[in-house]
Design the sequence.
């Protein structure tokens, strides 16, 4: 099942372990992805393509990730001055209109003992909780190239992406990533290691991308792909990639390859 949730191609912002704001952004103007150990407070922005405001690093709940997920050069901000706290996410209206148990309409209220508005059944009183979707995929490596699929379905029909999609009940993240690769590229892969986790809070999605390699050099388009192809890092069509999450993942991968230090990444993508 290929990823079907729409990702807005314009106006996204990304920064490891923090959130920042931009005034102008486009699909091809993603700021360079900094390793998690970088201490510069300003976002890195290609001139003439992207205007960014400085992004102070938060010492909030993400501090533990900075210690464990950035490679051997990463370290916590010891002795750093206090930074402004990250603003809470904007309120999102519950989308469940009818009860999943009895079919009656729901109402939007704050249940007793809770703080957020929930969809609550007007008949049986069942509280419906909405949780993020988990998306899993593979960054498939073969002879110094990566495998991309051109989408045959909307959203982003005709654009390139890593093979990825929603995790199914009953499978692990790695199993789901391998299954998606088989479905979209007819390729059997061996999972090597997790490469990145990317959270997109405003659309309720969390990505886990795994590094993988082909078990055999065979691949071809699955039913949801127009084409499949191996691209060298210099050939990756960044102006024709489907989703912000894929752009971010490939940018981080290229930086790791250039530095000779492949590591695990965590970041949040804020769409506007």
Sequence:
């Amino acid at each position: 099942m290929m990823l079907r949730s729409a990702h807005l191609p314009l106006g996204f912002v990304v920064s490891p372990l923090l959130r920042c704001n931009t005034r102008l952004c486009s699909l091809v103007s993603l700021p360079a992805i900094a390793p998690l150990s970088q201490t510069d407070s300003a976002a890195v922005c290609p001139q003439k393509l992207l205007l960014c405001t400085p992004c102070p690093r938060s010492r909030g709940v993400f501090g533990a990730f900075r210690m464990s997920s950035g490679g051997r050069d990463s370290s916590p901000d010891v002795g750093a001055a206090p930074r402004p706290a990250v603003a809470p996410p904007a309120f999102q209206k519950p989308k469940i209109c009818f009860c999943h148990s009895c079919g009656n309409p729901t109402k939007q209220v704050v249940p007793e003992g809770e703080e957020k508005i929930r969809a609550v059944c007007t008949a049986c009183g069942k509280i419906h909780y909405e949780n993020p979707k988990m998306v899993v995929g593979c960054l498939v490596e073969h002879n110094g190239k990566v495998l991309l699929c051109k989408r045959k379905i909307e959203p982003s029909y005709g654009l390139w992406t890593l093979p990825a999609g929603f995790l199914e009940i009953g499978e692990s993240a790695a199993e789901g990533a391998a299954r998606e690769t088989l479905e979209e590229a007819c390729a059997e892969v061996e999972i090597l290691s997790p490469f990145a986790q990317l959270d997109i809070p405003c659309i309720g999605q969390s990505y886990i991308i795994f590094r993988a390699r082909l078990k055999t050099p065979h691949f071809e388009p699955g039913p949801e792909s127009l084409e499949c192809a191996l691209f060298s890092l210099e050939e990756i069509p960044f102006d024709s990639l489907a989703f912000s999450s894929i752009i971010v993942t490939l940018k981080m991968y290229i930086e790791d390859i250039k530095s000779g230090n492949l590591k695990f990444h965590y970041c949040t993508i804020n769409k506007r």
Summary: The longest helix spans residues 244-259. The longest strand covers residues 189-200. The chain is about 15% helix and 30% strand. Residues 194 and 210 are 4 Å apart (CA to CA).
